Every structure is written in C-alpha cells, then in structure tokens.
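[Automated response] Your request has been received and processed.

Submitted sequence:
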Amino acid sequence: MILKKKHWTVAALVFGFLFGWLFLHQDPAFAEETKAEPKSPEKVFPKEASSDTNRDGKPDSRQYFGSDGKIIKVEADTNFDDKVDQWAYYENGKLVRVEKDSNYDGKVDGWVKY
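Generated structure:
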C-alpha cells in the first residue's frame, strides 16, 4: 500500500503530536506539578430551589437551605392558585412542624408538630 503525500503529512502530524505529548509527560518538572495534591473545592450549596409539580410553568413549591446544605423550610401552593398555603419547617434536616391554610384565606388554620 502506497500512501499519497497528503496521507504522509497527516501521519507525520499525528506522530509529532503524540511524540510531543509523551515527551512533555516525561519532563520531571511536569511530573512534580502533577504530584501536587489538588485543592479540594469548597462545598457550595443552593440557598433555594423550586419545583413545578403540575407542570404549568409556575413553581408550586420552594425549598430553602441553610449554609450547611440542609433543608430548613418548604413553602407549597397545594391548590395551584399561586399563593402559598402550606409551610414545613426543618431543624438539622428533620421535619419539626407543618402549618396549613386549609380554607385558603391566607391565615394558618392548622399545624402539626413532630
């Protein structure tokens, strides 16, 4: 099989690239840089998230998180009228209290403590 001039040029470029890459990775200075321990990135947690449970394009609930990433509060619109009517409160990531506006007048009518 005889390669045309264009094929030899491509083969030479590929070989040169691979040889150069291997040569750089054998460089002691390069090897020392790669041995350094990578810095661990700081953990970044979201402060707020929302979800659209009925897929109408509007968020139906919002979740709020503390600086440690644990959930602290959830507000929900359970009848889909764009007004919050249920609140859930968390401590150390565990549910401690739920408040509900069952007649949808904007005032808490009932609550449950855990």
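Summary generated for your ticket: The chain has two domains: 5-35, 48-113. The beta strands are 48-51, 61-65, 71-76, 86-91, 94-100, 110-113.
If you did not submit this request, please reply to this message.
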